[in-house]
Specification:
The protein is an alpha/beta fold. The protein has a single domain, classed as TIM Barrel (Alpha-Beta Barrel), CATH 3.20.20.80. It has 13 helices and 11 strands. The protein has a 7-stranded parallel β-sheet with strand order 5-4-3-2-1-9-8. It has a two-stranded antiparallel sheet with strand order 6-7. The chain has a two-stranded antiparallel ribbon with strand order 10-11. Strand 8, helix 12 and strand 9 form a beta-alpha-beta unit. Helix 1 packs across helix 6, helix 9 runs parallel beside helix 10 and helix 12 crosses helix 13. The relative contact order is 0.14.
């Protein structure tokens, strides 16, 4: 006698994810008993030291959003010309790292790399067919550059997704027995494991309103694929800079909010002086060379806002601030507006000038 089982195929992705969740929860429980997770996620100087005395750039790359929500956009995650962008990157011979994004900036929700299991639940329009992020990471790593990843802690954002999409997300969380942060951590862990040591660090946004337990959960998920990846979590702006959590290896370094003043305002020089006072900074914003503190880092737009607006940052001032931070042993990362398949032309011209000045001064070479 044979036994025949009938399974609704539409439920398979949900069943797979539920099994995955159970395994993750079991592993978490075991780690909690041993204290392994907590110990592993504490900040370590060794993670940040390869970035000490360096500068880099950030570009906000297109995601599935650009094709599904703006079909008339000439550039999206499916057709972005990586070779064209690399022609710009190759001219910045003194940079140490490039920050790119898996989600759609602070909105998250739309991604730049496939996640088939989640797409089966949330819909194909949130994920591209092309592994755009993976191709970009490969191109950068082949040039000896470190890859940092911007990731918003909201994961699936009710402020941007349709109500129907959020209903689907919430139904999934309920069926899997997950809270929203646990669901976001699952997305983080998936991409961390997928790309492993191709990712050298993470800059995590929008984590101020969640419990520290969830921030630790995020750190554990983000380091699942590379335990040596450094992490910053953004929780405040301007001076004094602080170590975001005990799990942060470098500071987020967000300037005073641009809706209040442009990034080139001289008030932000206090952040430079903060690092010059001592490159390692604790959770109180004080210089502290003890193990477990964060390396001072600044992450600043090179135009009036993060993604666009006036390119009025004085080049000499940008060079001065960058070299002062590098000389002090910190990290400076400039967020550059994107135009088509690369950096906006006015800002890129300034970057080339900055690169030349740093090269003349014997700045850091790629390592």
């Amino acid at each position: 006698m044979s036994l025949v089982l009938f399974v609704d195929l539409r439920l398979l992705p949900h069943l797979y994810m539920k099994l995955q969740n159970k395994l993750i929860m079991l592993a978490s429980a075991l780690f909690a008993v041993t204290g392994f997770v907590s110990a592993q996620q504490e900040a370590q100087h060794a993670r940040a030291l390869p970035f000490s005395g360096s500068w880099g750039v950030r570009i906000l790359l297109p995601t599935a959003y650009d094709k599904s929500k703006t079909p008339d956009a000439s550039v999206n995650a499916e057709n972005f010309d990586i070779d064209a962008f690399m022609k710009q990157i190759d001219q910045l011979t003194s940079i140490n790292h490039v920050m790119i994004n898996i989600g759609r900036g602070h909105q998250a929700s739309w991604y730049s790399s496939p996640y088939p299991e989640m797409a089966a639940i949330m819909g194909d329009d949130l994920f591209p067919k092309r592994d755009f992020f993976g191709e970009m990471a490969d191109a950068l790593k082949s040039r000896g550059l470190k890859v940092l990843v911007y990731f918003s802690g909201t994961g699936m954002d009710r402020g941007y997704l349709l109500a129907e999409q959020m209903q689907t997300w919430n139904a999934y969380l309920a069926s899997a027995g997950l809270t929203h942060p646990e669901g976001v951590a699952q997305i983080m862990e998936y991409y961390s494991l997928k790309f492993g040591d191709k990712i050298d660090g993470w800059w995590v946004d929008r984590v101020s309103r969640i419990p520290d337990e969830d921030r630790k959960r995020y750190a554990s998920a983000l380091r699942a694929g590379n335990p040596n990846a450094m992490i910053a979590m953004h929780r405040k702006v301007g001076y004094p800079m602080e170590q975001g959590t005990a799990y942060c290896d470098y500071t987020a370094g967000h300037p005073v909010a641009m809706i209040k003043q442009p990034p080139w305002t001289l008030a932000n020089v206090a952040m430079v002086e903060n690092i010059e006072a001592g490159p390692w900074i604790n959770q109180s914003g004080k210089p502290d060379e003890n193990e477990g503190t964060a390396l001072g880092a600044i992450f600043m737009p090179f135009q009036a806002m993060w993604r666009n607006r006036e390119a009025d940052f004085p080049t000499d001032q940008a060079i001065e601030w960058t070299t002062r931070v590098m000389d002090a042993g910190g990290i400076y990362t400039w967020a550059i507006a994107r135009e088509g398949n690369g950096f906006a032309a006015p800002q890129f011209k300034q970057l080339v000038e900055m690169n030349a000045a740093i090269e003349r001064g014997g700045g850091m070479k790629r390592r």
